[in-house]
Amino acid sequence: IIAMKTLLKFTRHDYIFKDVFREVGLLEVMVNLLHKYAALLKDPTQALNEQGDSRNNSSVEDQKHLALLVMETLTVLLQGSNTNAGIFREFGGARCAHNIVKYPQCRQHALMTIQQLVLSPNGDDDMGTLLGLMHSAPPTEL
């Protein structure tokens, strides 16, 4: 969590870090963390089985906090970077972000990430997926 906070500060400090993080593979690592969080959201018992009962509640909260930091960092990395958006899509990050919109605990962060994808080139597909989600969402979640 501390490392992600530091990386987030770096990305906000200087534009060059967007390229650096992509080149050294941190963008891919963050997308993998996003996939792990999506799996945790899909099957919360997965975290229960992997860890002991005494650490479970704090660990799940830590994973949630880490995932929100990852999504915030990804949003910053995608702002104005066509290359990062393409790589994010290539690693399955866009599909993952669209899939976790349905979970209220991370909806805001997922939508911020999707916003950057829609604003990037080839954002038409993301806009179509988002509109499809709105069509299938219950009225209370719109």
TrEMBL record:
It comes from the Eukaryota. This is WD repeat and FYVE domain-containing protein 3. Keywords: WD repeat.
